[in-house]
Amino acid sequence: MATLSTSPVFDSSFDVDKLTFEIFSILENKFLFGYDNPKLSPSTNHQIPLESMKSTKNVTGKVRILSIDGGGATDGILAGHSLVHLEASLRRKSGNPKACIADYFDVVAGSGAGGIVAALLFTRGRDGGPLCTADEALKFLVENRRRLFRSSPAGIFRRMFRPAKAEKVLRRTFGECTLKDTLKSVLIPCYDLSTRAPFLFSRADALEMDGYDFKMTDVCMATSADPTVAGAVQMRSVDKRTRIVAVDGGVAMNNPTAAAITHVLHNKQEFPFCNGVEDLLVVSLGNGESDFGNGNLTSSPA
């Protein structure tokens, strides 16, 4: 299992574009496009058609996992910038101006703000592709940050009405889409106060049992809900059979990478050729810790 970790301290004055460029230059060269393969050199690797790498389970034997941590100090903005750079690189290298993040990952996991980003990038839109490009997802976060996240600066009245505003924004974006309407395997956690245990929204579970299919608006509300009893969000599955009282997914699973890896290794129906961690490639994006506005960004391909 190969691991790459970069841990700069997040600061509002730090050049985000420079940071994402450095991180994803390493990811693109060493992990996503085969430079760690001794049979391929940088001088020849660019000749590999990137389009042929979409179905990674058949071509490379790797299952590619994208994991996006909870909101932290940046409410997903830093992760969003990273994904914009990655998607632009995928388009450039593939020669396909419409290439998207969902084309090149088999599984996405996200908690908190990361869960909303995952939903935006992997929910099916009207044209059959993803609901949002990485650039559109980033713009969504920037434009709606104060409506969606408790960590954003706001007065007491704005905080009181934030859940209603968040639901309105999310419902306008996702409409009636549910977990079944996602393009790939999606995993988004929350914490269920009624059972006092983590609850994992899963596309695989939704497809197998109607009682586990939830509207994407509710999924996003659940994983980003204020982690207090007063901030909890009550919801039911589409068929009304399953009821949960949800708070922030970061409480249960701030870094959902472990859940994604476990899901893949135990899901032989979707991933029959994955036999161990050596068959995984994981890109894990941190959003920064909230303590004193500082935190880490970690990318960990496996």
What attributes characterize this protein structure?
single chain; 302 residues; alpha/beta; seven-stranded mixed sheet; 38% helix; globular; disordered N terminus; disordered C terminus
Structural summary, described in words:
The chain has 302 residues and is α/β, with parallel strands linked by helices. It is 38% helix and 13% strand. The protein has eleven helices and seven strands. Strands 1, 2, 3, 4, 5, 6 and 7 form a seven-stranded mixed beta sheet that branches. Helix 4 links the parallel strand 1 and strand 2. The longest helix has 19 residues. The protein starts with 15 loop residues before the first helix and ends in a 17-residue tail after the last strand. The N terminus and C terminus are likely disordered.
Query: Which percent band covers the strand fraction?
Result: 5-15%
What is the CA-based Rg, rounded? 19 Å
Number of strands: 7
Name the helicity range.
25-40%
User: What is the end-to-end distance?
Assistant: 5 Å
Largest sheet: 7 strands, mixed
SS content category: alpha/beta
Following the backbone from N to C, one meets helices and strands in this order, namely HHHEHEHHHEEHHEEHHE
Question: What number is the mean pLDDT?
Answer: 77
Question: Runs with pLDDT <50, length 5+?
Answer: 1-14, 33-49, 153-160, 290-302
Name the shape in a single word: globular
Task: List the total number of helices.
Answer: 11
